[in-house]
Amino acid sequence: MLELLHIENIAIIDRADITFEPGFNALTGETGAGKSIVIDSLSAVLGQRTSRDLIRTGADKAYVSACFTGIPPEVGEDLGITWDEELLLQREIHADGKNVCRVGSRPVTVTQLRTLGSRLLNIHGQHDGQQLLDEEQHLLYLDSFGRTEPLLTAYREKYAKLTDIRRQMHALQMDEAEKARRMDTLRYQIQELQRAKLRPGEEEELTSRRNLLRNGEKFMSAVSEADFCLSGDDSTSGALALLRQAQSALEPIRRLDDSFEELYQRLEAVYSEVYDLAYTVQDKRDAFDFSPQELDEVEGRLDQLYRLKKKYGPDVESMLAYLDRSTKELDAIEDAGDTLLHLQQLEKKALSAAQSAAEELSKARHQAAQRLDEQILTELLQLDMGRIRFAIDFQPQPLSESGMDAVRFLMSANVGEELRPIQKIASGGELARIMLAMKNVLSEQDRVGTMVFDEVDTGVSGRAAQKVAEKMARISRTKQVLCVTHLPQLAAMADTHFSVEKGVTDGRTFTHVRRLDRAQRRQELARLTGGAHITPTMLEGAEELLSAAEDFKRTLE
Questions:
Q1: Taking CA atoms, which of 134, 285, 354, 372 is between 20 and 30 Å from 70?
Q2: Residue 66 pairs with which residues in a beta bridge?
Q3: Are 519 and 503 contacting, i.e. CB atoms less than 8 angstroms apart?
Q4: pTM for the whole thing?
Q5: Confidence at residue 386, expressed as pLDDT on a 0 to 100 scale
């Protein structure tokens, strides 16, 4: 269960620590006092999508932590998350959009936090009832209740294979004129690319050679001058000859002193290095053949590659890849008859496999629908909706991503009326109670230990409100319940009651969460019933509500 929620700098809440208890916890307060901010904070620490706008004005970050107890360690095993007696979730939301999430002292991703949070707590928002109006959600509810995910996954794998085969068949099934046009285009493109005799790396080599040829005169002048300096000519000695002369000058005295021998050897090493340099420069000079005709040929080849790149790809490698794809496509079209026949055989097998998987999935859904129908009706009976008829309607549809079933929820609100889609006849109060019933049934499947209801009493009043309160009390005997409410009947039924109050201090708005004792609860129930002006009669009525709630809860023990 959720034991402690700590909030810092969330909207108008500067700092709050809320210690929740087992059973039914209610939060009440004036509209705008910040009750839903508590739920938003809880959503944030559970990894749900949030906004930096949630950060209190003037603060650079917001922080929320939630401490859970009694959570089995296996809940987080597949996520690699472990804990001992207490499970602590933490989240920091920074003004620059950065999020820091931790479980205990270990950093986790928002996705890991959201996955773990979904296993700990279920939040039912005040607008969730509107989801019942969307028939696309009905199948999702049924699959969630029936736990058909493995069957749905197996079906989708087979359906994806069938879809891929049909896509390949569609690509081959073109009329003869279109086929002829496509083949002509492919043949022209293939021939053009083959005639070009493309070679990987060729463009880079040509570009380098062109740069060299364009600077041929500079190259010859520089190399020739370097050759003259190193080797000289018939009338002038170069560096090589001068180095040899220096060696000859030292030859008579080299053995008279070790220092002269060292100088001689160093000159020998320098001579050898310069000798290699001189012959390398000569090789460069002799190898370079500056030909204007070659430059024209290189320029022409590069221009050809440029024109081909505009049509077939940004570089030679891409053009070669295009050539390979075009060749394969042409072969496929020419062999389309045989290929299409083979694909038709594969499609038949894939369709049979997908149909079988869809039928197995549909059978599981029908069985789940029968159980869901019975449980929903039982829940609605407890919510003072015993005359409502509820049914799950199946309509066959062509195979799709979701299977072969179109599902929608039907109901009849009054005796003698036929079953019709929920969105056409359900009132706001009926939607709220049906959604409450749905949530309770689904929560029994997912084994979540804490359920949060944010103003689920919207559109509910009078006798229906009392039934909703009694239903909450029943749920709270097996699960921890947190409920934000405006109804005195629900607040009176709570085991623990919190008041959310807003005030102004030093020109800033602050929200405080205060746990109420019995006398304070009586005062708060009177306010919920009659507004700001509380009379003795209202206080007596509040006391009666509390006493009646206590009597009802004793019947549940």
A1: 372
A2: 5, 89
A3: no
A4: 0.60
A5: 67
